[in-house]
Structure formats: C-alpha cells, structure tokens
C-alpha cells in the first residue's frame, strides 16, 4: 500500500476562506480550540459564529469574544462552512433536524470524526462538500501547540466533493486551525473510524483487562494495594513510557529502561505469538465495527445517554467497573491519601 500524502502550509490557500461565514456547531474542547486558532490565523471575528445551546460552553464562547447564536436554524441559514463538533451520538438528531433543512446547497460541512459519515447517519445535499479535518490531539493541545507556533497531527479527507473544490477548502481549513504546519495526513472517514473504534473497543479494553488481571495475580502473591497502585500506574510511569514512545519510537524508548527491563520486555514480547489477539482484533473490526453492528446498537442508546443517574447505560458500565478488585483497591488507596493531607 502506498504511503499517505501529507499536506503542508504551502499546499493550502487561506484566501479561499475569505468572506465565508464559518459556523462552529459546539464550543467544547475542539470547538473552542479550533475557533480561536481560526481567528488568530486571520479570519475576521464577525465571520465566525458559534452555534450552541444556552449553557456554560456558550458563555465561554462569549467571554472569548465570539458571536453566539442559540437558534440553530438561523445559524444554518447563513452558513458557508460548518464545523460539526458536538458529540457523535447527538450529531444525527441535531444536524439532520435543525441544520440540514436550512443549509445552503453550496455549504461545506466539516467533520472531526468519521463515525457518522462512514455509517451514513447524516443527510447531505449532493451539491455540498463534506470534508474531514480531524486533529489527533485533545482540544487544549490543539490550542497550546498553535500558540507555540507548532503544528499537530491531523487527518484530512474529502468525503463528498459536491463543488469539485472540496480538497482545497479542506486544506485551507486545516491550515487555518494550524494543522498543516506539522503536516495533515490524507485519510478517510472509513480509516479514521476503523482505527478509532478498534482502539476503543479492542486495544484499550485489552490493556485495561491486562492491568486488572496482573493486579489480581500480584495481590494474591501478597503485594499491597499501595505498592500495586503506585507500581502499575499512579507513579505515572506508563504515561512517561508512551510519551517517550511518541518522541523517540515505540521500541527505541526501551533503551531508557534498565537492562533487566529491556531484556524482560523484548524477550517477553517476542515470545508471544499474538495469534489469538490478532484474531480477536479482526473479529471486532469486521464483525462489530465495519459491518455497522456497534453503530446500530449504540444509536439505540442515545436517549439513555442523556439521562442522569443509574438509568444512563454509560453510568451502569462505570458502576460495574468500579466493583472490580483493582478499582476498589485504588479507591481505598486514594481515600487513605486524602486522609493524610
């Protein structure tokens, strides 16, 4: 498979955004960061509109000097470029019911997650451009790196090229938020969704499970809660390892460890054939993610996710997870620490 194309500042023309009314649906972590970066890149403040219900996020937008519109229909009617930056589970309802009917046929819709586009949960006019500009960092980092004059990793794609000029617009927007300074990687909603959901539904669940089971085995061997919590994660050593991996390389970072650690990790990893794990990952990818099974089941939960208390299905999962030996031990350790302070 050929290497992905990477786009830089020199590939993007900011003048394409001149006089366009840019609307941000949502002013959360990504919305706040990208709107501010856009403004600092020279987009006039009166050409940026924040569409947000009346809540703390709207107040935050106003405090930062942005114009806020609570009536989504009014916001949609003036939109030339729409950044859809509200949670995945509410996008279909809000976009399809309140924005799509009043958007211009020539509007450009910008997504930061491929989920709803890949699963065809959003309704677009065939003349509209639908592009993905997807930073691979949390919003606070998107903002702080921009302020430092640095870029950040970002995926970019054209999912529907209604105007025939979707890519130039996507690149201009990528540059305006600061992504092309480091390089925006050509991708797709399918690729972004597959990687994102596989990490969330297979990779990280397995990591959580491995920590949970290792904790139990060591507890049975006589290790204390305090020693285990600090040794395994509260020391922040795992975070430091991943930071080194990002900076130097997944394998190269091992050279910062002791010789005993290097030998143990490398010999142990190479001894594991990974066949069962690979089969598990492929099963999740093809039989749960790409075939739409997870998306269909998750869509049924939308109303429940808006509830407070134990009726919320996400809260039910948290309550179940909090019953595990690892979680209970950590609770005891943190309570003890709080009592000492």
TrEMBL record:
Domain called KARI N-terminal Rossmann: residue spans: 4-187
Highest taxon, organism lineage: Eukaryota
InterPro entries reported in the protein's UniProt record: 6-PGluconate_DH-like_C_sf (IPR008927), KARI (IPR013023), KARI_C (IPR000506), KARI_N (IPR013116), NAD(P)-bd_dom_sf (IPR036291)
Pfam family, one: KARI_C
Annotated metabolic or biological route of this protein: Amino-acid biosynthesis; L-isoleucine biosynthesis; L-isoleucine from 2-oxobutanoate: step 2/4; Amino-acid biosynthesis; L-valine biosynthesis; L-valine from pyruvate: step 2/4
Keywords tagged on the record: Amino-acid biosynthesis, Branched-chain amino acid biosynthesis, Oxidoreductase
GO biological process: isoleucine biosynthetic process; L-valine biosynthetic process
PROSITE patterns, alphabetized: KARI_N
GO molecular function, one term: ketol-acid reductoisomerase activity
Residues making up the signal peptide according to the UniProt record: none
Family: Belongs to the ketol-acid reductoisomerase family.
The protein's name in its UniProt record: Acetohydroxy-acid reductoisomerase
